[in-house]
Structures are given as structure tokens and as C-alpha cells.
Amino acid sequence: MKMKPILLGLLAAGLVAGCGESAEEAATDTSMAAKTMSLDDFQLVERSTYFGNPERTQGRISPDGSMMSFMAPLDGVINVWVAPLGDFASAKPITDDKLRGIGSHSWATNGTHILYTRDTGGDEDFHIYSVNVETGESIDLTPFEKIRGIFVGSSKYPDEYLVGINNRNPAYQDVYRVNVVSGERDLILEHDRFAGFVADMELNIRLGLIPTPDGG
To answer: What are the C-alpha distances in Å from 70 to residues 84, 85, 118, 150?
Structure first.
């Protein structure tokens, strides 16, 4: 059983007092100590320390090493920023989410686009987006309602990825091959069986993961 720090402190105080006192005297001292303690005796940690926005997070380097990206607040909401490598003063936002903020981001292999995930107002229906670093033009790669998109695999083809989308069956993500520049997608695998996949660099699915009855 875990004890709260205050309780442990009172017990310790009681033990120390008890070294030269009777049990009754030690109990009285401990009771008095408890009565004199209040929240004013402790320094509260600001809520923003745990739940506030970070100054910057998720630093990333572009494939050619010339650019950097990170997530930081824009008008109080987490968005994606880019800049020449190491030049924070030149950083500019390339997304403009005004609700819950961007969940995560990474550079596309082509080096001209950034991929990021975002839901709408906290509905946890995470879509995968592609944004052009130069123009800021964003494309929803998973443009269906009430779905959750997942990354399945990248490849030697700079503009193409495999993503999973559960638009047909909410329990399973069918696999699509998508172009992060145009947004075009082709259905690769439709299934009602697998929990995940492993693909090779040619975007061929090589392994499928199936849960066991005991959750393994």
C-alpha cells in the first residue's frame, strides 16, 4: 500500500518524538502537527507546468539536412513550423489549426512535404495530412468521415506511402497506396482480419499481424 508524503511525514515525526516520550505524548505531538498543517504550507505546481503548451516540441530535420521543422504554439494552438536548419528566427508556421492542434508530424521522403496528423475538435478521428513546405497547401490523405488513419509504410518512392483507413469497417484499416503530392490513392488490401502490417521498400505488404485470443 502506498502512503501519501504527508502521512509518511507525520509517522516519521511520531517515531522521532516517541524516542524520548511515552506513546501518549508522541500521539499528541503528531496530532498537533497534523492540525497546524494546511495547503498554505506547500507550494502548488502551476497547472500549465503539466498541461500547458511547450515552447517547441518534435524537432525534425529534412531529408537533405537543409531545413528543420518543429511543433510550437500559434495563437495558443500547436502547429507545425519550418525554417532553415538552426535559424529559429526565420521559422514560419505552415499549418493553421485553430482548435485542438496538430498531433504529430514528420518529413515526407521527398523533402518538399510534411505529413501530420490531426483530429477535429477532440473527436479523436485522426486524419493524415500532407502539406507543401513552400506553399502551405494542405491535402487530407484520408478524406472520409468517422475514420482513423494510420501509417503502414514508407518506400524508396519519395512521393508514395501506405496508409490504413477504416472507412469500410471501423474495426479494421484497409490499406491504400497514396501520393502525398496529389492526394491520389489506390486500394491495396481490403480485409477483416489484421491488426497491423509490415511492408517492404517497394510498398509490398510482407507481414500481417493478428491478435491472439489472450491479447498477444
So the answer is: 12, 11, 15, 21
Contact in structure between 154 and 111 (CB atoms under 8 Å): no
| Strand 104-107, strand 92-93: pairing | unpaired
Classify residue 86 as exposed, middle or buried by CB count within 10 Å of its CB (0-12, 13-18, 19+).
exposed
pLDDT(20) > 70: no
Which residues in 157-180 are b (16+ Cβ under 10 Å) and which e? ebbbbbbbbbbeeeebbbbbbbbb
Average pLDDT, the chain: 87
Side-chain-side CA neighbours of residue 114 (13 Å): 30
The percent of the chain in helix, strand and coil, each rounded to the nearest 5, is 20, 35, 45
Q: Choose between 209 and 45: higher pLDDT.
A: 209
What's residue 6's pLDDT?
A: 45
Q: Which residues pair with 174 in a beta bridge?
A: 165
List, for residues 162-179, the tens digit of each pLDDT value. 999 999 999 999 999 999
Residue 86: in which H helix or E strand, if any?
Answer: none
pTM of the predicted structure, to 2 decimals: 0.76
